[in-house]
Write a structure and sequence with these properties.
The complex is a heterodimer of chains A (501) and B (483). Chain A has 501 residues and is mostly helical. Chain A has a domain of 53 residues. Chain A is built from 16 helices and seven strands. In chain A, helix 13 packs antiparallel against helix 14 and helix 14 runs antiparallel to helix 15. The longest helix of chain A has 34 residues. Chain B has 483 residues and is α+β, with helices and mostly antiparallel strands. Chain B has a domain of 248 residues: Beta-lactamase (3-Layer(aba) Sandwich). Chain B is built from 19 helices and 19 strands. In chain B, strands 3-2-1-6-14-15 form a six-stranded mixed beta sheet. In chain B, strand 4 and strand 5 form a beta hairpin. The radius of gyration of chain B is 27 Å and the shape is elongated. The chains are: A mainly alpha (501), B alpha+beta (483).
């Protein structure tokens, strides 16, 4: 890679530990206040809850200290804060449902269990995946896995149709949405494939109207994967995931080739696809109606495909106003799917515009830290993977919150880390683990080449100054060391390799 | 690859700024509209979670919120049930609200501007906000007397204090039990609402203020007032009173009740009113003209679409562009003339109050939870309907109606009652509506009352205002004077 920037940063584990304190406090305080707000007394398991979530966060923190000491110190606290907020809101809604005698009220404990599972899997990823470049070896495995995951819900018996979308797989009591995991596999595949073919994709091909068109054979495999995934998704009637994959695809193609033509082609494809879908499929056209004329009585009153849910969400957010009703003081439970698709409206209602903006800022920080990781990491695969994963989280948030607040038509997607749903939580924690792993690589000091005088020959020999001595092959410095003069003072290894501050 | 990454980072930032913008739009700019959207159930839920202020009559709560152990926290109850249904209306999660529960909602929920400081204090002290108490002008004895006298007949009674405009009694039958609609179970409340909505006699609407009837002969008070005000007539001015009045431009005629004579070809204006002579007043209407009648009617309050007490009042109508036969019928309160019982009570009250109609009102004081008075309704003149001299003359004529005319059954021992009967033809074949409007004592009025009994009530086709409605008015007058 031509573009490489060394970082001179401290590992940041101390910073992370410090940031985890408010991050955990947000979740635990929310949980306690929600309990008081709904039931008028502190939840009986408040202490256990606080200890439990703290232990979960600390486990990740300790694993990072041991196995990824240079990992970005902000990512974990942000994820912990979002996950905690989500748990508090979900438990608050669960209490409200239980109080109103709804049958579907016991989901808070399930989400807590899913959080533990997610953290465990994130730890496994961090422990097993010592170097993210290992994933590049599984480029085509990832492709097959992605296609298989996407196709899974279409299988008989285990595939399930929920609310018109066939995106669920259910085996026994455990249901999952494979598409959530497919997005990771797709990102791995796109990164691996594009890093190999980026030059031919970018440079070979005819120029039409000032746009560099790629050659068909370069484009072939990737287009096939994309087309296949889209076809299946239209077949499954899951527009949100379809849009998400599409955005991921275009963004990563653009990252790899730096060609604006891809964005233009992508947008054309998308507008064409959307227009075709809107006219062909009744349910897509209805979504546009709901988007543009949500408050009109005729759209609101439609039995199927009406704007009832969107408008209820808007009512909830409006009820929250600037500062919110406070935990447990609003009625977010009036909104259908308040704990999953519309959890952002629940947050807006009880924490107000202030709280909602704070949550959006947390996501902004998360996405930008991820992209910063992509800029910092030295290998092309890592750049593409980190960029793609960061973007997919940001874009998923945009699609779901944009749908709720009517920036774009509403599509069914879960809010990363916040919303109820095991698959989404696990997948996003794995994404966080991958970003942490890549950021460890990105922020690890450049191996310092020290000039070692060899009296016999008199030619300096490059020796990698690695702090860990992991026994991995020594990488050459990404930076051209001024020949023979040794490192500049500010590249001194002691600066990076000291213990945690 | 860093340049596109930076651009992508910028794009992500732009996307998030768009989200923050849209969230601000919804929660700040649009919030007011969304919060007041009638489809937004939250407003109602929020109110149910707080202690709604009571509605009070004669020092006792006729509607109050009591704490209950359910998600809403409070249950609206109406201890007297149906008796005050046309005053309080209902307050229901499933069906909204009506009458005072609706019109005084801001005060009852504590959201009114006058309750600003009380609200701030609740916010600072962390107390659950409470609504203000709305004290009505209703005199419970008069209300009960009116309700009992109406019995199971369909109709309405309105009693006013002529000198202030206070509504002393407001009864509509059939009424309903607001408790049935206040239940928190949406399905149960909706079902009861549907039943009441479909019920005969439309119990959910107040006949006293939201229903218009042909006023029949009680409208002759307006025609008589117009005659006196024209300057050409006094109580003893003779007016033509044929047995049958031929209407111009048509073969139709107007006769008197039962085809009787009014006591000669000419009678005095006072006698014409006393025996409720149709031909005399129809002829009088033709002589005075449409404009004079309408102007007089409007000075009593007809055609005022803005009047509220503060519950809804539909406007009473004197029709426009009448041809002579229609005018003749309008002068005796038939044809397209229609009035609410409240309006006819205002006619009597105006005559009683030396010609000045006071603005009727139902809410006397609003008290904050700490019992400080946050607002008190001051009596206000609505209009001057007729001069003091005309009012005095008309009062004497109305006294004659009760002493020796059609309204004798409204006599109260020891008290001079001034009144006027009415028997309003309705649809062909249906029994007439029986009317009576009166005030007492005639020299120093304390109560003006209007009574309507639909379709003759228990007497059916044989009913007249004097037989059916006048005793009800008498009961109310006695109740007010006894208190």
């Amino acid at each position: 890679m031509a573009s490489i920037q060394p970082h001179r940063v401290r590992p940041g584990r101390g910073t992370e530990l410090l940031l985890l304190v408010p991050a955990l406090a947000i979740g635990v305080t929310g949980y306690v206040l929600a309990g008081i707000g709904v039931t008028d007394h502190v939840p009986g398991n408040a202490v256990g809850y606080a200890v439990g979530t703290t232990v979960l966060a600390l486990v990740v923190h300790v694993v990072l200290r041991l196995r990824a000491p240079y990992a970005d110190p902000v990512i974990l606290p942000v994820v912990v804060a979002l996950n905690g907020l989500g748990l508090a809101m979900i438990s608050r809604l669960s209490l409200a449902y239980a109080e109103r005698g709804r049958a579907d009220s016991g989901f808070a404990d399930r989400q807590l269990a899913w959080t533990a599972i997610s953290v465990a899997l994130a730890v496994v990823v961090l422990l097993l995946l010592r170097d993210h470049r290992t994933l590049r070896r599984y480029t085509y495995t990832a492709m097959v896995a992605a296609l298989a995951l996407i196709a899974l819900p279409l299988l008989p018996v285990i595939g399930q149709t929920v609310n018109g979308a066939r995106i669920w797989v259910r085996v026994g009591p455990v249901g999952m949405q494979p598409a959530e995991f497919a997005k990771i596999a797709l990102a791995v595949f796109f990164a691996g494939y594009l890093v190999t073919h980026r030059d031919t994709l970018a440079l070979a091909g005819k120029k039409v109207l000032g746009l560099q068109l790629p050659r068909a054979r370069d484009l072939g495999p990737i287009l096939v994967v994309w087309g296949a995934s889209l076809l299946v998704l239209v077949g499954q009637r899951d527009l949100g995931t379809s849009l998400l994959f599409f955005g991921l695809f275009v963004a990563m193609l653009y990252l790899a080739t730096e060609r604006t033509s891809w964005v233009v082609i992508g947008l054309l494809l998308f507008v064409g696809g959307a227009a075709a879908a809107a006219t062909t499929f009744g349910h897509v056209g209805a979504r546009f109606d709901v988007w543009l004329r949500a408050l009109d009585q005729d759209v609101y009153g439609r039995e199927v495909g009406g704007s009832f849910q969107v408008v209820q969400g808007l009512f909830g957010m409006a009820n929250g106003g600037l500062f919110g009703t406070g935990w447990g003081q609003g009625r977010p439970d009036l909104v259908p799917y308040a704990e999953s698709d519309f959890i952002i409206a629940s947050i807006g209602e009880e924490l107000g515009l202030t709280g909602l903006l704070a949550v959006l800022l947390l996501y902004t920080v998360l996405a930008e830290r991820g992209l910063r990781t992509a800029i910092g990491v030295r290998d092309g695969f890592g750049k593409l993977l980190a960029g793609g994963l960061s973007f997919v989280v940001a874009f998923q948030l945009f699609v779901v919150v944009g749908g709720v607040t009517r920036v774009i038509p509403l599509t069914g997607l879960t809010t990363p880390f916040l919303a109820y749903g095991g698959s989404s939580l696990v997948a996003n924690w794995i994404i966080a683990a991958l970003l942490l792993r890549i950021s460890d690589e990105a922020r690890r000091p450049v191996p310092v080449v020290r000039a070692v005088p060899t009296p016999d020959i008199g030619v300096p020999v490059a020796v990698a100054g690695r702090g860990e001595g992991t026994g991995r092959p020594v990488r050459s410095s990404a930076r051209d060391v001024p020949d023979g003069t040794g490192p500049r003072p500010d590249d001194r290894p002691t600066e990076h390799l000291g213990g945690d501050a | 690859m860093n340049t596109p990454l930076r651009r992508l980072a910028t794009l992500v930032l732009v996307m998030f700024v768009a989200l923050m913008g849209s969230a601000s739009w919804v929660q700040f700019v649009q919030a007011e509209d969304l919060n007041t959207d009638p489809r937004n159930a939250r407003t109602l839920y929020r109110e149910h979670g707080n202690a709604r202020g009571p509605i009070v009559a004669g020092g006792e709560a006729i509607a109050s919120s009591v704490p209950v152990d359910d998600p809403f926290g409070f249950q609206r109850t109406y201890p007297q049930g149906e008796l005050y249904s046309s005053v309080t209306g209902f307050y229901s999660i499933a069906n909204g609200r009506s009458q005072l529960e609706r019109a005084a909602n801001d005060q009852l929920t504590g959201r009114g501007d006058q309750l600003f400081f009380s609200r701030i204090r609740d916010l600072l002290t962390g107390r659950r906000p409470e609504g203000a108490a709305v004290e009505t002008t209703i005199l419970p004895a008069a209300q009960r007397a009116a309700r009992d006298a109406l019995g199971d007949q369909h109709g309405a009674v309105v009693a006013l204090d002529p000198s202030t405009g206070k509504v002393l009694a407001l009864v509509s039958t059939p009424g309903f039990d607001p408790n049935a609609l206040a239940v928190h179970s949406t399905s149960e409340a909706s079902q009861r609402y549907a039943e009441l909505d479909a019920a005969e006699g439309n119990p959910l609407r107040s006949n006293a203020t939201q229903e218009r009837y042909a006023p029949g002969s009680t409208f002759k008070l307006v025609t008589a007032a117009a005659a006196l005000e024209s300057g050409g007539y006094a109580a003893d001015t003779p007016v033509p009173s044929p047995v049958v009045l031929d209407l111009p431009q048509t073969s139709a005629t107007i006769g008197n009740f039962g085809g009787s004579s009014c006591g000669g070809d000419q009678v005095t204006l006072a006698d014409a009113l006393r025996v409720s002579c149709n031909t005399a007043f129809a002829n009088l209407g033709l002589t005075l003209g449409e404009d004079a009648l309408r102007e007089q009617a409007e000075r009593f309050g007809f055609g005022d679409a803005t009047l509220t007490i503060p519950t809804e009042v539909v406007e009473s109508v004197f029709p426009a562009d009448l041809d002579p036969p229609s005018l003749a019928q309008a002068a005796i309160g038939q044809r397209d003339v229609s009035a609410t019982p409240l309006q006819m009570a205002m006619v009597s009250a105006g005559i009683a109050n030396d010609g000045v109609v006071m603005r009727p009102y139902l809410v006397d004081t609003v008290r904050a939870p700490d019992l400080t008075v946050v607002s008190r309704t001051e009596p206000e003149e609505l209009s001057t309907a007729l001069s003091r001299a005309s009012a005095d003359a008309l009062t004497q004529m109305m006294v004659g109606v009760v002493e020796s005319g059609t309204g004798r059954s409204a006599q109260v021992p020891g008290v001079q009652v001034a009144g006027k009967t009415g028997t309003a033809e309705t649809v062909q074949g249906e029994p007439p509506h029986a009317w009576f409007t009166a005030f007492a004592p005639a020299d120093e009025p304390r109560v003006a009352v209007a009574v309507v009994v639909e379709n003759g009530g228990s007497l059916g086709n044989e009913a007249t205002g004097g037989q059916v409605a006048a005793p009800i008015a008498r009961a109310v007058i006695e109740a007010v004077l006894a208190s």
